[in-house]
Amino acid sequence: MVAGDAWEWDRSLPGYSASAGWRLAYSLRGPTDLDVEWATHVTASGDGFAIRIPGSVTAALAQGTYSLTGFVSTGADDRRTVVRATLLVHPDPSSAVDARSHDEKTLALIDAAIEGRIPPDLEESTIGGRQVKHIPIETLLHLQGVYRTRVAAALADDDAFGTVEAVFGFPG
Question: What is the spatial distance between Cα 39 and Cα 24, in angstroms, rounded to a whole number?
Fold first, then answer.
């Protein structure tokens, strides 16, 4: 999911139909919290539910990993959890934030060090109380391979411009 995009999906829950009075809501907890509420973002669609969260709402979400919980209820005393999932929110690509992952940033630093263009403020630093002046080229080449593999795997797993179909199940 991408912050700033409209998030839309339809959901049907056997045994908890909208036409029988069940109301669906979601709670998104992580770096930023969001409550996806009945009537505001969730409406009845026949026996199922239509979830529509505008981009103006998702734009406020910070990049990171979130816990998504969906629950239904017909009143104040009968809530039932029907969805538990982990959700990764990517930053709004139109924002000025450096959206590179830790692995991408680290690979760029390793590449710069190998090319002899490491930023001057990183030529000497202190890490965990230990002063580091340089990293041997053998170590840099090994780390470059490790981080290239991580970045390539992340890019292969992340189709940022494709359509993702999310299927939620009952906890259990």
Answer: 9
